[in-house]
Amino acid sequence: MIQFDWPRRRVYFIFHSSDRPYSVLQATEGCVEFRHDNGELSLVNINLDGMEIRRIRLAGLAPEVKEKTIREALSP
Q1: Which listed site, 14, 26, 64, 75, has its alpha carbon 20 to 30 Å from 54?
Q2: pLDDT number for residue 38
Q3: How many whole angstroms separate alpha carbon 45 and alpha carbon 62?
C-alpha cells in the first residue's frame, strides 16, 4: 500500500513482508536519485518510520511523481 502526504512531501509504503523494508534499505543504502521530467536531479532519502517495521518513508519527492513511477522503481 502507498500513502501520499504531499503537504510534507512524503510517501509512505506498507509492506506485507517484514523483511522487505530492510532489503529496500540495504539495496538503496537509504538514498536514491530521482530524475524529474525537466532533467533536474533530486536525492530522495529512504528510512524506517516509527515503530511499524513494515513501513518506510520517502521524503523530498515532488508532487508530480506518479504512484506508478514509485511502484516501478521499488519493485526490483
Answers
A1: 64
A2: 92
A3: 13
- Cell readout for 22 is 530492510
Indicate the length of the chain as a whole number: 76
| HEC string for 14-72 | ECCCCCHHHHHHHHHCCEEEEECCCCCEEEEEEEECCCCCCEEEEECCCCCCCHHHHHH
pLDDT of residue 51: 46
Residue ranges in the chain whose pLDDT is less than 50: 51, 53
With beta carbons less than 8 A apart as the criterion, state whether 24 and 55 touch. no
Count CA atoms within 13 Å of residue 11 on its CB side: 20
